[in-house]
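Pasting as-is:
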Amino acid sequence: MATSSEENRSVATLKVVRLGIAVVLCILVYSGLWYGAAGALRDKLTAVLSGANPAAITAECDDMQVGGFPFRVGVTCSRLSVDDHFHGLSASFGAFRSAAQVYAPGHVVWELDSPGQVRSALGFSLALEWQALRSSLNAGLSGLDRTSLEATGLQVLLTTLVDGATIETTAPHAEAHLRRSGEDLDIALLSRDAVVSVRGQTSLLPPVSSSLDMTLVGKAKYLELKGDRGEGLYGSEGEIRRLVADMGGGRVVTISGPISVGDDGMLSGRLRFEIEGIAAWRDTLNAAFPEEKDSIDSAANVLKALFGGQDKGGADLRLTNGVVSLGIIPIGVLPPL
């Protein structure tokens, strides 16, 4: 009996040893794979940041580190800077952090620290600050499928280099979402209580909340930074499902319909325009732009007459190479993009 008991203990001990060895080997193999993948990621990022990307954009990731072992893979930088020489744009930001779970490497979350600066050869610069800026992206075998960006406590200063004028925009919350839909690109934008003013002056208009839901035909390639160099939105077309601007107090404007941008940047399309609170809009605009009071009052009277004396209503607008018409009557001209 003693011999049988000792043999059982020996067999059990051998199984435990084998299990321990197997666990150690698995850990060693996993560690080797993780560090190999991290090294490959570093090499790939170095190539991409050096301009080996469809847009030939270069970037610098200061003090770049690849970490997150054992269950994540992430990249950190103490400072991030980007240069697009073709479009004459350069930008610099604070620290950058990203992470992806090893079991879902196509889902990446990242965040960027304030402040940010963007400079353009077209003669303007942007200074940006935010409390938090976070994003996520999902990529599949065919490339990037969707990405989202969320900012809180956002402040943007737009300065024109010609006269030094500075426009300040603040928003406690803003979001942007892009999604591939076949060859098309779905876009959703949202901002809450945004305030626009000339820096150092009181805002002329109350805070406005706005949202945009639209599709650009054939522009899913922009998720991969692809496309003819310099094409931008020129020669494109799309559908505005819903564009809303809400200033509170019943002041709401909604626009929807197909729209296109010509090769010269002029807009064309057929849009449905709906407005609520015509009297409130009139009073707000008169207070902000008293020198335009006669024109604003006339426009409000025309809208009320068009809507049968109601304080709200809708109309179909036609855009033809930038000329805005209500029926057959031209009512304004939009500048090119």
